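Feature request, filed as a ticket because there's no other form

It would be nice if the structure record came with a short human-readable summary line next to the tokens. Right now we just get the raw output. Example of a typical job, pasted below so the devs can see what we mean:
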Amino acid sequence: MRTANTTHYYYQYATAQGTISLIPEANGRYKVMYQGEALGSYGNALLASEDVRGGHTFSSSNGVDFAELNIPELADWEKKQFAIVRRLRPG
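Raw output as currently delivered:
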């Protein structure tokens, strides 16, 4: 048996109105989080970041419009390690 590792990452971007996070979920999906609120679930981090940039997520309770915050492309967000999943594979 050998071990196969998969590293999962989350992304954050700090705005003047607070930090937006893209948190990994099951099956490669990403959840948009803002001030403790889940604002949608997307097929991947890129799709999530594009909807955040365009202001196309569910609305936050404080009414912030993400489209007005000049949020950059995902490549410019802070990328952090979320988890390393170790699986045993037949050798």
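Something like this underneath would help us a lot:
The CA atoms of residues 39 and 58 lie 5 Å apart.
The chain has one domain: 2-89.
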